[in-house]
Amino acid sequence: MNKLLLGDNLEILKTLDAESVDLIYLDPPFFSNRNYEVIWGDAGEIRSFQDRWSGGIDHYIAWLKERVVEMHRLLKPTGSIFLHCDWHANAYIRVFILDKVFGEKNFRNEIVWCYKKWAVAEKSFSKNHDNIWFYSKTAEYQYIQLFQDRAESTLKRFGNKKIVSGFDQAGNRLPSQTLAETSKGVKMYDWWEIPIIAPSGKERIGYPTQKPEALLERIILCASNEGDIVLDPFLGGGTTVAVADRLKRYWIGIDQSVQAIKVSELRLQKQRDLFSTPFVVQLHKYDYDTLRSSNAFEFESWIIQQYGGTANVKQRGDFGLDGKTKEGLPIQVKRSENVGRNVIDNFQAACKRFDNSLFEKQIAHGLPIGVIIAFSFGKGAIQEVARLKNQENLVIQLVTVADIVPLATKPKLILNFKDLGLDAKGLRELELIAEGKSEAGIEFYAWDFSYDTRDGFKADVMIDKVGKQVEKFKAGNHQVAVKVVDNEGLETLEVIQLKINGVVTV
C-alpha cells in the first residue's frame, strides 16, 4: 500500500483505482514564473517545469486542472483535498479548477498559513502567507474537529478554572462552584501561525520549499483516521508521506524528480522502527543485482504486481504457485537465471492440480495454462515449452523479469578519507571522500556517520552533490556509510570502519 512512485503524476494517477483514497494534499509548483522553482535540478523536474511554462496562466491552469480531475476520481465519497498555493494563482485555482471540479457547494475552508520571513523591499505589505484550499468530494466528508489553546487572557482571568452554577429540582439557583478547566480549547481557526523551518532546524533536509511537519500534521489529523490512505502527487521533500507514516496512515507519494523520490525514501528510512509498515519504491529502472538478492517472497509479490497479477498471501498449500494473472491463470516466479526443464514439468502438474477444469479448457482452445516469470530460461526449458505447444497444444508463457521492468546496473562507489588532525577539543577531524561512477550520471550522495547494520542506513546528510564531508570523531570504533544515487534512482552503499586512537586505522 505504501508507495513512492517516480514519474509524471498525471499518467500515474490514471492507473490508480477510483474512490481508493481518503485524503489528498498537493503542493504544486507555484505560478511564479521564476527559475528558482527548479529545486532538484534533475531531468524529470526540468522537463515538467518547461511543460508548465509553455504558455501563461491559462496553460498553467489547464496543466493543473487535468491532474485535479484525476484526483477527484480517486477520492472516496468521504474524502477531501487540500491544495496549497500562493497569491500568484490562488484565485484562478479556486474559480477555474476547484469550483469546477469539486463544485462550489463542496468548498469547506480557505486556510491561511501565516509565517515570518525577511521582507523584500517593495511598495506593498510583506507577503507572509500561503493559501490552502480545502474541498470535500461530497457533503458526507470525513472531518475530525481540532482544537487550539484557549485565549491567553481567558486563562489569566480564570487561572485554568471555570465558574459554573446550576439549579435544583425546584428551580432554585445553586451556589457557584469553581471547577478545574477540562475544555479542549477552542475550535481550530482557519488561519494557522506555524513557523517556516529554520535553516538549522532538525527537519531541514536541504529542500528550499520544504513545508513544516506541523502543517501537514494538522491536515492529516483533521481529515483522516489511522489506516486511511493519504496521497501526495507532488511529493517534493516528502513531508506528507513522512507525517502520514508517523501517524499510522497508508500513503502514496508521486514525483517526476529522482531526487524527490530518493530523498523521501531516506527520510522515511531515518524515522522507521520495528513497527513501521513496509513501503516500495517504483523507479524507471531497477538494479539487477538488488532484485536477484532480495527477499524471495517480497520479490515474488512485487514482480507479480508489476506484471498486473495478484500475489498469493499465503506461502503454503498453493501447489508451488505464487499468484494469478488478472484472467485467473496461475503464475510461478523463479528468482534465478537459466531456469531448466524440470520447472516446466512441475509447473504443468501444478496448474492441473490448481484448477483442472480451467487447465483442460485452456488446452482445448490453445490458450496459455499459466505464466512462469524468471530472470532467464535455459535451452531445455525453452525447447520443452515449444514441444508442448506443437505436440500437445499446451501453452506455457515464459516471461523474463526484463520483459516486465527495465533493468540497469547500479553505480560504482569508492570511499576514502584524509586525516586532518586533531581539533582544539581533541577530536579527530576527517575529510570523507566518496567517488561514484554511473553511465546514467550521479545525482547525489547521502551520509550516515554512525552506521549500524541492525538499524539500517539513517542519513545524517541527505543531499550532498559533491561527495565530500568533514566530520569529527571521538576516540574509538566508528562505521561510516555513504550512499550514491544515480540519475535513474539506482544506489550503492559503501561502508568504512574506522578505529581512532591517536591515529586513524581502517
Helix-strand layout with pairing:
Elements: E1 3-6, H1 9-15, E2 21-26, H2 43-52, H3 56-74, E3 75-85, H4 90-101, E4 107-114, E5 129-136, E6 147-148, H5 152-158, E7 161-164, E8 177-180, E9 186-187, E10 191-193, H6 213-223, E11 229-232, H7 239-246, E12 250-255, H8 258-271, E13 280-282, E14 286-287, H9 288-293, H10 296-307, E15 310-311, E16 323-324, E17 330-334, H11 341-354, H12 356-364, E18 368-374, H13 379-392, E19 395-400, H14 401-404, E20 407-408, E21 412-422, E22 428-437, E23 442-448, E24 461-464, E25 468-473, E26 476-486, E27 491-501, E28 503-505
Helix pairs in contact: 1-3, 3-4, 6-7, 7-8, 11-12, 11-13
Number of continuous helical runs: 14
Instruction: Tell me how many strands there are.
Output: 28
Largest sheet: 9 strands, mixed
Radius of gyration: 29 Å
Rounded average pLDDT? 88
CATH third-tier fold name of the largest domain = Rossmann fold
User: Could you give the distance between the termini?
Assistant: 42 Å
Structural shape: globular
Lateral arrangement of strands in the main beta sheet: 10-4-5-3-2-11-12-1-13
Which class of secondary structure composition applies to the elements? Answer: alpha/beta
- So what's the CATH class of the largest domain? Alpha Beta
Could you name the CATH homologous superfamily of the largest domain? Vaccinia Virus protein VP39
Please name the defining characteristics of this protein.
30% strand; 506 residues; alpha/beta; Rossmann fold; 4 domains; 28 strands; Trna Endonuclease, Chain: A, domain 1; 5-stranded mixed β-sheet; 9-stranded mixed β-sheet
